[in-house]
Amino acid sequence: MKIVHTIKELQTELLNDRSKGRAIGFVPTMGALHAGHASLVKRSANENDVTVVSVFVNPTQFNDKKDLEKYPRTLEADCKLLDPIGVAYIFAPSVEEMYPAPDTREFSYPPLDTVMEGVYRPGHFNGVCQIVSKLFEAVKPRRAYFGEKDFQQLAIVREMVRRMKLDIDVVGCPIVREEDGLAMSSRNTRLSVQEREYAPEISRTLYASRTFASSHTVCETRKFVEDAIAGVPGLQLEYFAVVDGNTLQTVERWDASDDVVGCITVFCGDVRLIDNIKYKER
What we know:
six-stranded parallel sheet
């Protein structure tokens, strides 16, 4: 495993790999890695000859400067996690390396980016597309791996790849959860002991809602989730949306789509947690 810090060095290494016909897989991350990230890396290592993992906290996707400042940065620990699981290169650039000049590009993919996170985090997905497009240009992978926990992000990255006509297969990977059901997230490390006890109620509520949904309407299911979260001390619901898994638009009937997902965002203290559950899928 080799750690590189510049695009030039990374591309020199990858040029050699490509000349030998090696398929390149890519896992973009913001570091503070956990078993969820490791699952993406292992899948890439199984499906490609060379796996690149980027570790970069991207400032342009944070609409809250305090959130950017608090985001954990643990490169040494990240390297220890990645070394034994098949990573060829860790790309850990500086902000100056990725943004030698301000990125003024604007990415707009309505209606995918105008709902849910697009409403509550204006500018977030533009920042995501800025950095992911830069990383794709630097790595030029055959396949790129993203977790389904960030369901809306995955849909938008796929649309960006389609619109930009990039020859990259965007692979979505299942949510990895703690033993108590909490979706793994780098933000979980910021939870207090008490908050960590409350947080699993998010996933418990989602799983309970899937059972509830089998005999109730979409509207009733939304209220079930809203009421359940409201009843947990320490949790504050930002939104819960039941959407078409392709368009991300709200559905009002279960038969409106054959791909229906419930997406939720909850504050646990001042830590913002996201999760989702599939009610119907192809």
